[in-house]
Amino acid sequence: MAELQPIETALEALLADVGPLEAEQVDLEHAPGRVLAEDVLATLDVPPFDNSAMDGYALRAVDAGKRLPVSQRIAAGSPAAPLEAGTCARIFTGGEIPPGADCVVMQERVTLEGDTAMLPADIPQGDNVRLMGRDVGKGERLLAAGQRLEAAALGHLAGQGITRVSVRRRPRVALLSTGDEIIEPGTPLKPGQLYNSNRPMLKRLLENFGAEVVRVISVPDNADQTRALLEQAANEADVVVSTGGVSVGEEDHVKAALEALGQLDMWKLAIRPGKPLALGRLPRADGRQARFVGLPGNPVSGFVGAWLFLRPLMSALLACPALAALPALSASADFATSTGPRQHYMRVALEFTPTGITASAFADQNSAVLSSCIEAHALAVIPPNHTVEKGDTLRCLWLTG
């Protein structure tokens, strides 16, 4: 019997020799969620000129406490003329600070009498002024390679007038579902059949991790067809992911097909859920290799395996450090449990309180109970042969991104 391997050994085997995919140019409107392939330098100062942080009056700080005539009105988007000595300027949020002015007082603190303004005395130099280049200066690094382009990063690029960016090509994934008993929703169930819950779940997770699912394939319980469909999937994808068929049953043909076609790097892990997990490589017609991840068929095992293995694999292919490891946090256990020889990844809900974080485990941790994954915020990592008492500190992996 093969010795159960720790997750660290499996991750090392999975990521060995994995390099980033090539870059491609895309329009900014098609860039959300993509990963930058190279640094982006600022070509503009942001903001591009000194401007007002609020509606008010621009003046020289030395004139604070005086009554001054209002010499001009500056709206956002309009150029400002130099400020005449001994005057102030009506200015609106985002308006250009006129040359000569060095502060802005909010309008609520000003008393108007005709065309003059009585200004308070306590206005420091620079007050309510957003200086040119405060956010980023021309020539500085705007965003680093490996940055995932979400809302703020996209806004940062648009603020420079950028319309196209260089990003990593999305990893192409073929998603295989094995087993004659697995059918697609919409088909009437016959005795012994199950609907395919893994396919939509894993497709969504893979897309969240930055991949593109290019093929979905149903694999029957037939050795020859399993080999043929694995070979086909490898030629169409960078990564082949299967569910089921990697255990030791007579109808589990995936492991044997992988060994016949390519290379089995790892099989059977000392984790719960997810022990029957196969990692390997499949040859492609172009001389390259497709990575293979064979997840167990139980939906919770597939869910947990996707976070633990598919996410870091996508990180390596995209050169995106943010996806490499799940954020870890410490929480107080609101439950008691014990483990055997396998490391347990328990689905937990987290409660954030003024005194810390509490982790509550779902009562039924069976690998077929997918409902526990819906409300789970994190996976509590319980080492092998370990006892947890209520109040003990746990290491939890935050399920995000």
TrEMBL record:
It is an enzyme of class 2 (transferase). InterPro entries: MoaB/Mog-like_dom_sf, MoaB/Mog_dom, MoCF_biosynth_CS, MoeA-like, MoeA_C_domain_IV, MoeA_C_domain_IV_sf, MoeA_linker/N, MoeA_linker/N_sf. The keyword Transferase applies. Its cofactor is Mg(2+). It catalyses: adenylyl-molybdopterin + molybdate = Mo-molybdopterin + AMP + H(+). Its EC number is 2.10.1.1. Keywords: Magnesium, Metal-binding, Molybdenum, Molybdenum cofactor biosynthesis, Transferase. GO terms for biological process: Mo-molybdopterin cofactor biosynthetic process. Pathway: Cofactor biosynthesis; molybdopterin biosynthesis. Residues 174-316 form the MoaB/Mog domain. GO terms for cellular component: cytosol. The keyword Transferase applies. Pfam families: MoCF_biosynth (PF00994), MoeA_C (PF03454), MoeA_N (PF03453). One of its GO terms (molecular function) is metal ion binding. NCBIfam families: Glp_gephyrin (NF045515), molyb_syn (TIGR00177). Belongs to the MoeA family. Catalyzes the insertion of molybdate into adenylated molybdopterin with the concomitant release of AMP. This is Molybdopterin molybdenumtransferase. The lineage of its organism: Bacteria, Pseudomonadati, Pseudomonadota, Gammaproteobacteria, Oceanospirillales.
